[in-house]
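Protocol step 4 of 6: structure prediction from sequence.
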Amino acid sequence: MGILLRLLVAAGLAADAYVHWQFAPDMKGSQGGSIDGEVLFQAQAIVAGLVAVLVLVLANRVTYAIAFLVAASAVGALLLYYYVDVGRLGPLPAMHEPVWYMEKTISLVGEGIAALAALVGFFTVRSGARHDSGAHASRV
């Protein structure tokens, strides 16, 4: 089950990274905020891609927790900006977008799968199993 979870997390984050990278130029000059929408989308794409690779290479509670935070925050942001016009949030630009399209669906599904798989991975991954050779020898 471990490799399946790793692949689900990585694939979901890869979909998230791809969609954010593709749409980053469209977010250039978003209204307000000290962080440009293009930079924000590029940062999300890079972080999602790096975390996808990290989970593939090293799956432990820490990497699954990081993957969960990246994916779940992306789901939260997507749904918030779809349903609510919150305007500018601190340094973040106003990004309300009450329309739905295929790429947004791909991103949401990928992020959701990654978040759920990372959560399962977090609770099911074995922490570094320690072997006590003395205890093993006494049982033999």
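Step 5 (inspection) to follow. Residues 47 and 116 are 18 Å apart (CA to CA).
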